[in-house]
Amino acid sequence: MLKNKQKTTLIALIVMALIILALVIWRLDARPRTDDAYVWADTITVSPQVSGRIIEQLVRDNQLVQKNDLLFRIDPATYQAVLKQTQAKLAGLNRQIELTQRSVNAQKFSAGSAKASIASAQADAKKTAATLRRLAPLLSQGFASAEEVDQARAANSSAQSHLQSLQLQAKQAEAAVSSVDALVAQRAEIEAQIEIARLNLAYTKVRAPFTGRVASLKTSIGEFVPAGKPVFTLIDTTHWYVIANFRETELKNIQEGTPARVWLMSDTGKTFDGQVDSISYGVLPDDGGSVIAGLPVVKRNINWVHVSQRFPVKIRVTNPDPHLFRVGASAVATVQPR
């Protein structure tokens, strides 16, 4: 009897253990967990847009800066001189346009009078030419004197000269208008140069594009930095993420927006809420095959056994502790499908 009771108790314990094990496996499968995770944030390399020597540096390594804070200053002397030079060119061109416009206005007035007189001059030229053609044959016949023919020829020559003078005035006025248009086109070009000079001068002040922490400061006051050369890295501290590598067999329960919880190795007593931001659709294989540049590398734990590949899942943390979250810090993550 006692033996049967002990046997029954043992069987019950085994069944309970199996049930508990099944529940644990189900929970792990339904709520995937991984300690292959790390903290991540968006970063940029801060570099000047213009070349020059650093004359002021207002940050130090690991310092927290606010958006629009002045980080460092490039010597502005050269860019101030270029701006003054282009502004002087514009002032000189404006004076030239003003003087040319006055000349054009005068020529336009003369041309207007000339155009009004051209029709009359053309009529006079035709009339004197006709008179000359009529008198010239009569000279040999004795019906017209040489003096009359000479007077007709002189009148025709004078009429033609007057007509040509009026036509020239009209053409000169048109040419003067074209010269003003060319100067106005030059003014647009110089105004664009002034805008570029102003931008370059503004670029000598390098400001923080967002709130973040300075990292890997590589320069100091007095160093010449070319445009585009990285001076330091700025970590965006307004948004924090945990990159958690889950097995491909666990991804079926993970999707964008799935709630998650994360812990940091630096303080496992604190829990941080989050949600899945995105799931990677490619990793670099470590067992041969084609290699695609730019894909994340996630090494498998056991190379001699075919194990599930792990894919990065990006979790956005909703309540990060700014004192604990650091790029690269070790983390543990659990996703909690609803």
TrEMBL record:
Coiled coil, from the record: 149-200
Identification of the protein by name: Multidrug transporter subunit MdtN
Superkingdom of the source species: Bacteria
p-hydroxybenzoic acid efflux pump subunit AaeA-like beta-barrel domain span: 240-334
Family stated for the protein in its record: Belongs to the membrane fusion protein (MFP) (TC 8.A.1) family.
PANTHER family reported for this sequence: MULTIDRUG RESISTANCE PROTEIN MDTN, P-HYDROXYBENZOIC ACID EFFLUX PUMP SUBUNIT AAEA-RELATED
Membrane-spanning parts: 9-28
InterPro entries for this protein: AaeA-lik-b-barrel, MdtA-like_BSH, MFP_Efflux_Pump
NCBIfam families in UniProt: PRK10476.1 (NF007785)
Name of the coding gene: mdtN
A Pfam family hit: BSH_RND
Keywords from the UniProt entry: Coiled coil, Membrane, Transmembrane, Transmembrane helix
Lineage: Bacteria, Pseudomonadati, Pseudomonadota, Gammaproteobacteria, Enterobacterales
Biological process according to GO: transmembrane transport
Domain Multidrug resistance protein MdtA-like barrel-sandwich hybrid: 43-235
